[in-house]
């Protein structure tokens, strides 16, 4: 267990903040703001991982926290901001589902996530077991954002946010993944963002838009 009740409450506050940011990402249509929220989500993940590393006295979690800071708070948001400026894609104006309905579905997913996580939390022995439900909720909300947006950029941000949720869930349930796996995932994310950046430019050049529904016309042809 955590030695300090203050740290327990701080972890809960960080987890709740991460959940609120996920809802904010669902509701915003401005892509620049979406990237900023993703960076804030990474910052919360950095602070929570650092706190767990301090309380559990796990040195490898400090490396995980540092990797999170470099990759998810600095590098990936910077790359995404550059891509958005060059592509001129500032808004995601036409989500597949309107915002109020999306938020309502999000609330249902949060309730489902907490119900699903309850037996897992009872079996877990980690100091962060009470945040497993929030971690699952973040994953589901990120997936919801992916399937309710048209633009490729917002779907990629949803994928990255879902990876944040997976990392948070791993930290909550098992104190994170082995460092080799985390480094591999980090490298995969960087490569994926670069490849998707090229893909964005190709879509933009071909269709003068980043709306993925244009790709359906190729299948019909």
TrEMBL record:
InterPro entries: HyfE-like
One GO cellular component term: plasma membrane
Residues passing through the membrane, by range: 6-27, 34-53, 65-84, 96-116, 122-144, 156-177, 183-201
Membrane topology (UniProt): Multi-pass membrane protein
Assigned keywords, A-Z: Cell membrane, Membrane, Transmembrane, Transmembrane helix
Highest taxon, organism lineage: Bacteria
Subcellular location, principal: membrane
Subcellular localization: Cell membrane
Protein name: Formate hydrogenlyase
């Amino acid at each position: 267990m955590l030695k300090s009740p203050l740290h327990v409450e701080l972890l809960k506050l960080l987890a709740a903040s991460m959940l609120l940011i996920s809802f904010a990402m669902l509701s915003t249509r401005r892509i620049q703001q979406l990237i900023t929220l993703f960076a804030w989500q990474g910052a919360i993940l950095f602070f929570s991982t650092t706190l767990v590393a301090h309380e559990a006295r796990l040195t490898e979690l400090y490396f995980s926290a540092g990797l999170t800071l470099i990759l998810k708070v600095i590098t990936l948001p910077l790359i995404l901001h550059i891509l958005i400026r060059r592509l001129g894609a500032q808004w995601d104006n036409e989500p597949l589902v309107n915002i109020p309905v999306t938020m309502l579905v999000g609330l249902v997913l949060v309730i489902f996530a907490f119900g699903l996580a309850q037996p897992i939390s009872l079996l877990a022995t980690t100091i962060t077991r009470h945040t497993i439900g929030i971690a699952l909720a973040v994953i589901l909300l990120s997936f919801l954002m992916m399937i309710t947006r048209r633009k490729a950029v917002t779907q990629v941000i949803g994928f990255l946010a879902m990876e944040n949720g997976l990392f948070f869930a791993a930290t909550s349930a098992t104190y994170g993944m082995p460092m080799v796996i985390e480094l591999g995932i980090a490298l995969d994310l960087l490569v994926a963002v670069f490849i998707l950046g090229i893909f964005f430019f190709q879509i933009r050049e071909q269709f003068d838009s980043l709306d993925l529904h244009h790709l359906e016309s190729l299948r019909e042809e």
